[in-house]
Design goal:
With 97 residues, the chain is α+β, with helices and mostly antiparallel strands. The chain is built from two helices and four strands. It has helices at residues 16-24, 35-45, and strands at 2-6, 50-57, 63-76, 79-86. It has a four-stranded antiparallel β-sheet, with helices on one face. Strand 3 (63-76) and strand 4 (79-86) form a beta hairpin.
Length: 97
């Protein structure tokens, strides 16, 4: 198994078809997990966040997992905190793999 890390939204364009095919076979298939929703959200609200997209490929090269993660910075009691969370948090109703 190979893990690939992507850091730019345009790198994800190559995975659009695979993303939606994987999602169509998932028990958690819903509009908030589609390629279209998450990439649109990122283009509108991703500023100031760091994108980390992880894909896992089997030995035959087939993509078996796409994990859209972002790092956000929050201030709590004057202290800056970085948090890893699903892309589109808190605007999506579903966050899952």
């Amino acid at each position: 198994m190979a893990i690939l890390e992507l850091q730019r939204i345009n790198e994800l364009n190559d995975f659009e078809t695979e993303w939606n095919q994987l999602l169509s076979h998932s028990l958690d298939n819903n509009p908030f997990l589609t390629y279209e929703w998450l990439t649109s959200w990122w283009k509108q609200y991703g500023k100031g966040r760091t994108l980390k997209l992880f894909t896992a490929n089997s030995s035959d090269g087939a993509t078996s997992l796409i994990a859209p993660i972002m790092y956000s910075t929050y201030k709590r009691f004057g202290i800056k905190l970085r948090k890893a969370e699903f892309v589109a948090t808190p605007d999506s109703d579903y966050h899952t793999f």
